[in-house]
Design goal:
Layout (H helix, E strand, L loop, with lengths): L2 H15 L1 H11 L15 H15 L3 H19 L1 H5 L4 H5 L2 H12 L7 E8 L2 E7 L5 H14 L4 E7 L7 E8 L7
Antiparallel strand pairs: 1-2, 2-4, 3-4
Helix pairs in contact: 1-2, 1-4, 2-3, 4-8
The protein binds protoporphyrin IX containing FE.
The site of protoporphyrin IX containing FE (HEM) has 24 residues, from helix 1, helix 7 and helix 8.
């Protein structure tokens, strides 16, 4: 996993829970690099799972809730770092439809060793989209947060249902996205 993801995570922990908690989880995670990540470096994704597990122990907040919140934050950061991906399309479904064939393709050009998931997307109607997440890594909760962050960015009310289709810990997960009807009579 790229260092940029780790540095964003540690910054978020420092902001929300304080530097002491950030230091504690880094120490307890017993990391080979003591928590010093460079943006372009590549690190074992298991280090992220270890950090989140320790954060969960320190804060009493469940791991998926923390990972999802991180996804929402990361999306917000991506809107600042890569605004062009967001301004080229004008709805949440249209944006999510570009992840597989555009956004992550560009990410791969930028970081050839990036480990990315795949997304099969189907827009069934203006109000219903399906996204199938598949990865060798169990980061569907991160995808969930990134999807919620995208809906927020476009100012849309979207409910997201998650169905685990895998037998090995959330590596194949189907998301059903439903856009809430806008009351035009108001
Ligand atoms: C402009 C928007 C986006 C950018 C720039 C971006 C970039 C990245 C980068 C740099 C990584 C790390 C790769 C690595 O560590 O090797 C990543 C991983 C990931 N991305 Fe994206 N991404 C974007 C949007 C999204 C969205 C909207 C979703 C969800 C629908 C998504 C789902 C994921 C997931 C789940 C991973 C973790 C790796 C895995 O599950 O295997 N990304 N992305």
């Amino acid at each position: 996993m790229k260092g940029i993801v780790f540095s964003e995570f540690i910054e978020l922990v420092e902001d929300k829970f304080g530097i002491e908690i950030a230091d504690t989880i880094i120490e307890k995670s017993n990391l080979p690099n003591q928590g010093a990540y460079t943006q372009v470096g590549t690190y074992d994704h298991k280090e992220m799972l270890t950090l989140v597990t320790h954060l969960s122990k320190e804060t009493g907040i469940e791991v998926p809730v923390l990972v999802q919140a991180f996804g929402e934050h990361l999306l917000d950061r991506f809107t600042q770092m890569y605004p062009q991906f967001f301004t080229e399309v004008n709805s949440c479904f249209a944006f999510l439809d570009t992840i597989e064939n555009k956004v992550h393709v560009e990410v791969k050009k930028l970081y050839p060793d990036a480990e990315l998931p795949t997304f099969d997307s189907s827009i069934h109607s203006d109000s219903h989209m399906e996204l199938l997440y598949q990865s060798k890594r169990p980061f569907s909760a991160l995808a969930y947060g990134l999807i919620l962050g995208s809906a927020k960015y476009y100012g849309e009310q979207i409910s997201v249902e998650m169905e685990d289709m895998s037998t090995d810990n959330q590596t194949r997960v189907c998301f059903q996205l439903r856009k809430e009807a806008v009351n035009t009579l108001e």
